[in-house]
Structures are given as C-alpha cells and as structure tokens.
Amino acid sequence: MGLRIGSEMPKLDNINWVSGYPEQQASKPYLVHFWTLDCSSCIELMPDVAALLNRYDGLIHTVSINLEGEDEEEVIAKAKKAGIEAPVGIDEETLLSDAFGYNFIPAFYLFDANGNMRYFQQGQDHVATLEQRIKRLLR
Question: Which parts of the sequence belong to the Thioredoxin domain (predicted)?
C-alpha cells in the first residue's frame, strides 16, 4: 500500500546515495523523484525536471531516486547529462520505493515543510502540473 495525501514522508535512508546526500530536515517542502534508465518517459522528462528543480533551488529540497539498482556510473551520467543537480540515490533493495508505493514511473511525491505528503504524480503527466503544486505549497 502506498502513501496517501497527508502521509508522513518515509526516511531517505537504506539506499545507495551515489551523488550528494539528501537534507534530512524538513525545514522546506520536499520533492522526491523516482525513475529508471530503461523508462523512456523518465529519460525524456528529465531535462524538464532538472529545469523545474533549478527554478526552485533553495526553496525546496529535492532528491532523485533510481529504482532498479542499475549501474552506478550510468545513473550518475544520465542524471548529470539531464542537468539533475539534486542528490541521486539508487534504491537497490527497493526499500524506499516500497515505502512510497509507486505504481508508475516517473513518479513525483511532494511533501510540505512538516514532512506530510501534499501531492503525488505518476506517469507522463506534464511538469507544468507539478510546478503548479509546488507554487501552491510555497504560498
């Protein structure tokens, strides 16, 4: 069973952080982004996600989680090529992704500054929808 609106954000541990390390303190809203290398929608959307994250840099915490225990160097290279500067982790044992309970990727979970989930988006929905939710949360 996955998270529901109002659910507390799971701890961002038990995964392999390959690029950076997440801010654990929920002093700002938090966006968690799940993806894989073999998901064409994930890869196509990553530059738009990176641009979104850059627009809200300093206003929200973000992490980018690869789901399939894929090659570390390839994961880092793909994230870097897309412009993802947020901490990147690989959920090799699916402990974190199981806690979130996603059904489709890419998946985005947005939490408020108190660590409660306020929005989730799964699949190929537009980044503009996600941005509207971030703006609402920052008001």
Answer: 3-139
Q: Locate tokens 């738009």: which residue?
A: 48
Residue with tokens 């920052």: 138
Strand, coil or helix: 85? coil
Q: What is the DSSP code (8-state) at residue 116? A: B
Domain at 27-108, CATH class = alpha beta
Residues whose CB falls within 8 Å of the CB of residue 67, separated by 6 or more in sequence, listed in order? 34, 35, 36, 91, 94, 97, 105
Q: List the structure tokens of 70.
A: 């894929």
pTM above 0.85, yes or no: yes
pLDDT in tens, 56-84: 988 999 999 998 777 899 999 989 998 89
Side-chain-side CA neighbours of 21 within 13 Å: the count stands at 4
Cβ pair 52, 131 in contact under 8 A: yes
> Would you place residue 20 in the very low, low, confident or very high pLDDT band (cuts 50, 70, 90)?
confident
CA gap 113, 138 in Å, rounded: 9
Burial 48-65 (b: 16+ CB within 10 A, else e): bbbebbeebeeebbbbbb
